[in-house]
Give the backbone structure.
Amino acid sequence: MRHANPLWKSVLAILALVLTSLIWAQGLQESFSRPSVSPKISLNQNELALLAEPALPESFREVLVGLNPQSSLRDALRDIPLSKMDERNRILLAALEESDSARETALRDPFQDSSFRELQQIIKEKSLNSSSILNKLKDLNIKESDPVLFGSLCLLKQSSFSECVSIDTSRLFAFRLVLSQLIPAGSVLIGSILLVVNAWTLFRSRSIDWPKISSMPLSLVDMTLLVAGGFVVLGEVIFPTFFAPLIEQVTRGFKSPLDQSLKVLLGYILMTIPPLFIFRRQLDSLKDIEKPPNGWLQWLTIPLGNAFLKAASAWLMIMPIVLFISWFVTSLFGDQGGSNPLLELVLRSKDTLPLFLLVITTVVLAPLFEELIFRGTLLPVLTLKLGYVFGLIVSAFVFAIAHLSVGELAPLFTLGLGLGILRLSSGCLIPCVLMHAFWNGVTFINLLLLGG
């Protein structure tokens, strides 16, 4: 048996809880000022549709890209205030506009980039013929680096987009477009079927037979010190602030986006150190207590193949629920912004090494660390102290709010519930790690298909 918590530990936990409340309140407030990645994703989808249209069969064209992808892209650009639009998109909007006055408005403010200044002149010089425009565009080498911009500028003198972009290029982007729509649509369809089947099975059995969960004999004070003290105060605030100059020094010699990817990776590793240290100390305090046969965390109590199948089916079943919750909240309150900056970074990155570092961070490190803390340690202790229902709700809420985004709070809470149910129903932690990795990995793949 463990002794009661000493007074100093309780005082430290209260202090950590107060500081965490202030940090989370400020973080959630600041999330309103962070831009949402949704408009950028929508814009990329429209660009992809424009490039893909010539290669799509006519029977599927309207379903996949709509009636007029060129008009849809122009409307999506018009929705962005010119003051917030980057120079590339201003050129793209000017090329797609149909009237001279609209083009002049898009090109009104000066351009800092010399390449965009040259493109500005191409749009303004109405006397240029098609061959002159194409020669100037080839000199600027944007045909391969930005086929959407190249095709739109080419359209100034050509009658259709297919005359400006090769069929091979269109086929490549058609493949990316179809895949980017097939993955979520197929996942939602299969997940919905699995949900109905499992709900019917549960209704018929009228009982839930979940395995016994091994909970470390830790107190709620211990959990407060681990999550509030280690994860939030030390991991998210003090360590990043203290080591920020060192990370800046290490990444100074690298160009963007490699330097940003390195900062994300190193920052995440540093963030994990305080809570992992506290967790290690808490484990050491249990050395005189006999461990369960499968260990305190129950990493792998079932065959790895079964763990993989449970993770995949749970990911599929939670997908339609999370997407519905996200749509419902956005319909009620609008897009609240506050998207994870990592999403924008993945959308913009084209080089292999920066993307690889982001994969390591999001698909490997984040699932391992967050599942260890939230489903490996916090959830079992909460279910022991509060019961299964309240334990699930509290752990999912802490998981959601720890991401500091008001706009993503409801979807992340739903995802946290799904991960928690998987932990309790499987009696194993590895399926949760795999499901979390699937979620981040598929999101990553979709961003790659829409970006770059």
In short: The chain has a mean pLDDT of 88.
